[in-house]
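Problem: given the chain below (176 residues), write out its structure.
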Amino acid sequence: AGLPVVNLSDQLPELPYPRVLPDNDAIGRVAAQEFLSRGFERFAFLVLGGDAPVVQERMGGFRALAEQEGKQFFEIDFTPNWQDPQAYNNLLPWLGRQLKKLPKPLAVLAQYDAEANYVVRACLDAGIEVPDQVAVIGMDNDLIYSELGPVPLTSVVSNREALGYEGAALLDRLVA
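Solution.
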């Protein structure tokens, strides 16, 4: 249509539009720093869609800081299981089994707050104490998930409102 466009998504990076995105690497590092400040030695990241750039970037920042500080890192990757039609029904039991295998205490980061609640629910179902054995942080500070889940979550604020304003300002410049 020949109209200015600003992309606010990390999907379809091949599209030739300017984009405004969060610094996902920094978001992952903020979560790692919080766990480091609390003395954790073992870190894990729940991956539910390993191909998504946001997942790779957030996990990358989290992992990089943890390993830079000499801490153990574990990737809990459910991605291959999504091919199973019963995948969603199997997620919590599978996740509980994976978490039971890992050394405790364990600091777990999930790519979003909803997924962080999966970690909490899997822990509770498997008899793993939250936050004593497994501490969990989510991302994006979505109050529906961080405040109303089975256990209130700490969540890294990604400041989506500011991204919207930055995108609108860029679009305004393009229109002008």
